[in-house]
Amino acid sequence: MAKAKKSVFFCQNCGYESSKWLGQCPGCREWNSFVEETVSAGGKAAPAKGISGSEGRTGKKNEPVRLAEIQVREADRVSTNMEELDRVLGGGIVPGSMVLVGGDPGIGKSTLLLQVCRQLTIQGHKVLYISGEESLRQIKLRAKRIGEFNEHLYLLCETNLEIIRSTIERLKPEMVVIDSIQTMYNEEVSSAPGSVSQVRESTGILMQIAKGLGISVFIVGHVTKDGSVAGPRVLEHMVDTVLYFEGDRQLAYRILRGVKNRFGSTNEIGVFEMREKGLEEVKNPSQALLNGRPTDASGTTVVCSVEGTRPILIEIQALVTRTNFGLPRRTSVGIDYNRVNLLMAVLEKRAGIRLGDCDAYVNLAGGMKLGEPAIDLGIVLSLVSSYKNQVIDEGTLIFGEVGLSGEVRGVSMAETRVREAEKLGFTSCIMPKTNVEGIQGKYKIKLIGVSNIKEAMEHI
Ligand code: TYD
Ligand code: MG
């Protein structure tokens, strides 16, 4: 008997399901993101078969096991030989895990994964790269730029999941790359490739394969602004690890950020640079980001932000000028715009600096995006330095969170930041007073503890 079909509406951004069309998604507040899809009546739109139910993730009969009896070996992880990627993954690839790599089109996801394939095949692992976007010739051309490949890499241009499943079962590779999930389709689902139900169903099938055969699967997911295809958010909860590849396409630096990780800490970042011959790891991002920094210019400061476990020194630039007419203009690049506005209000109220009739532009160098509050004090001092046209000594590092009453609050991992600054040859450090205790005298770098923004301003 043919299954009855019914039609439902899905938000293409977050996967919210509704029986009728809605203008705004109640789940993610996105406008105009609902698309009608047909699903078989009865079951839910995308049952992730084999994950719940009577059979466990391994496909074997499901019996309760004592925790103590489960064997885990850290050595099971497979290193990708790329330190930046290994760190974000939590120490290497876990066999049988599913990793989603999301990012804007053209940012370098395919390039990164092809490089991972290369490193793994060099170690003798059998890898299958499945592309639904590029022809074999295109992949070959890309591979040529990256380097030599050996016989352990297999390529397949296919979008039909049933064929993919049988190929994987026959070939039994140790790792599979799916580029991209939005091009894959399952004949049993009637909606178009890239729709929420297709993407979910495809991921469910891949999950079964990954857990059943112990194969690590890397899935590429495009982030789209217009909502024409389902974004990676729809499947974030299904996979083990979610990595986002971000950066400005015009600039060379690319940041790989761990957003979710069942096998390691999140918020770790890996820094890469896009070159002619593929992505190159940036082992010392602070040094790279501070390269070519202007000296003797007002409005620039160097701050330290800790991403995951790693301190990154980066330059903040501010430009404060008189507004010529009407409403003052404020823009920020790489830093939250509202945070900049808030800090300007704090400066106005607590330090008596009249910024109300000033335009202000605040930039983070190198196309980076940072959200850690520890960069607050750097933003404040950049603004003051530009406003007063006074240069801050180039050997000074600044960090600290700024509160609404103008107080400078302590931040975590202060010692890590100080150590990184010393390593890069900084001579002094303006930081929260509470953080100075405990590390005073341990380092050669001069530590200047401040408790509010007025005190900090005296050191410019
Ligand atoms: P790609 O991996 O195709 O992006 P995605 O899969 O995320 O859509 O990368 C595309 C860009 O990278 C493209 O604009 C060309 C550039 N690129 C280089 O600069 N150097 C290289 O060695 C390679 C392979 C790509
Ligand atoms: Mg691609």
From TrEMBL:
<keyword id="KW-0227">DNA damage</keyword>
<dbReference type="InterPro" id="IPR014721">
    <property type="entry name" value="Ribsml_uS5_D2-typ_fold_subgr"/>
</dbReference>
<keyword id="KW-0238">DNA-binding</keyword>
<dbReference type="InterPro" id="IPR041166">
    <property type="entry name" value="Rubredoxin_2"/>
</dbReference>
<keyword id="KW-0863">Zinc-finger</keyword>
<dbReference type="GO" id="GO:0000725">
    <property type="term" value="P:recombinational repair"/>
</dbReference>
<keyword id="KW-0547">Nucleotide-binding</keyword>
<dbReference type="Pfam" id="PF13481">
    <property type="entry name" value="AAA_25"/>
</dbReference>
<dbReference type="GO" id="GO:0016787">
    <property type="term" value="F:hydrolase activity"/>
</dbReference>
<dbReference type="InterPro" id="IPR003593">
    <property type="entry name" value="AAA+_ATPase"/>
</dbReference>
<dbReference type="InterPro" id="IPR004504">
    <property type="entry name" value="DNA_repair_RadA"/>
</dbReference>
<dbReference type="GO" id="GO:0003684">
    <property type="term" value="F:damaged DNA binding"/>
</dbReference>
<dbReference type="GO" id="GO:0140664">
    <property type="term" value="F:ATP-dependent DNA damage sensor activity"/>
</dbReference>
<comment type="function">
    <text>DNA-dependent ATPase involved in processing of recombination intermediates, plays a role in repairing DNA breaks. Stimulates the branch migration of RecA-mediated strand transfer reactions, allowing the 3' invading strand to extend heteroduplex DNA faster. Binds ssDNA in the presence of ADP but not other nucleotides, has ATPase activity that is stimulated by ssDNA and various branched DNA structures, but inhibited by SSB. Does not have RecA's homology-searching function.</text>
</comment>
<protein>
    <recommendedName>
        <fullName>DNA repair protein RadA</fullName>
    </recommendedName>
</protein>
<dbReference type="GO" id="GO:0005829">
    <property type="term" value="C:cytosol"/>
</dbReference>
<dbReference type="Pfam" id="PF13541">
    <property type="entry name" value="ChlI"/>
</dbReference>
<dbReference type="GO" id="GO:0005524">
    <property type="term" value="F:ATP binding"/>
</dbReference>
<dbReference type="GO" id="GO:0008270">
    <property type="term" value="F:zinc ion binding"/>
</dbReference>
<keyword id="KW-0234">DNA repair</keyword>
<dbReference type="InterPro" id="IPR020568">
    <property type="entry name" value="Ribosomal_Su5_D2-typ_SF"/>
</dbReference>
<keyword id="KW-0378">Hydrolase</keyword>
<dbReference type="InterPro" id="IPR020588">
    <property type="entry name" value="RecA_ATP-bd"/>
</dbReference>
<dbReference type="Pfam" id="PF18073">
    <property type="entry name" value="Zn_ribbon_LapB"/>
</dbReference>
<comment type="similarity">
    <text>Belongs to the RecA family. RadA subfamily.</text>
</comment>
<keyword id="KW-0479">Metal-binding</keyword>
<comment type="function">
    <text>Plays a role in repairing double-strand DNA breaks, probably involving stabilizing or processing branched DNA or blocked replication forks.</text>
</comment>
<keyword id="KW-0862">Zinc</keyword>
<feature type="region of interest" description="Lon-protease-like">
    <location>
        <begin position="359"/>
        <end position="460"/>
    </location>
</feature>
<feature type="short sequence motif" description="RadA KNRFG motif">
    <location>
        <begin position="260"/>
        <end position="264"/>
    </location>
</feature>
<keyword id="KW-0067">ATP-binding</keyword>
<feature type="domain" description="RecA family profile 1">
    <location>
        <begin position="74"/>
        <end position="223"/>
    </location>
</feature>
<keyword id="KW-0346">Stress response</keyword>
<dbReference type="InterPro" id="IPR027417">
    <property type="entry name" value="P-loop_NTPase"/>
</dbReference>
<feature type="binding site">
    <location>
        <begin position="103"/>
        <end position="110"/>
    </location>
    <ligand>
        <name>ATP</name>
    </ligand>
</feature>
